[in-house]
Amino acid sequence: MHCACVFIFTTSSYTCVLRWLNPLFTTGYKRRLEEDDMYEVLPEDRSDRLGQDLQRYWDVEFQKATKEMRKPRLTKAIIQCYWKSYSVLGLFTLIEVSVMSVPSFGNKV
17 with 53, same domain? Predict the structure, then answer.
């Protein structure tokens, strides 16, 4: 059993996400979605920006690999490029899992 506050937190967060996406789901149910139906992406999340960032890290990895006489590794460039944003996401996921796994001491099974 989870404590009531965790249930309320997760329920309210899921409700918020569903309210945000419900119009898109409704439109997709009624007809095929068009590009104009999608939400606008943040400038820092656009594929051209992300691609340019990864290209810079790939160029550095390629130069280092050439200098060290080894094959360049794309995974190394990806990790170096995106580790900060994924570590923040991982931290929030860890907190969520930790809070949800705490047993409720007030309820008897």
Answer: no
DSSP tag of 36: G
Picking from 70, 75, 46, the residue whose alpha carbon sits closest to that of residue 58 is 75
Dihedral sign from CA coordinates of 60, 62, 68, 71: positive
Number of domains the chain is built from? 2
Give me the residue label for tokens 């944003």: 85
28-71, pLDDT tens digit by residue? 899 998 888 887 878 877 888 888 999 999 999 999 999 999 99
Range of the domain at 81: 42-109
pTM of the model: 0.55
Structure tokens that stand for 65 in this block: 């690999």
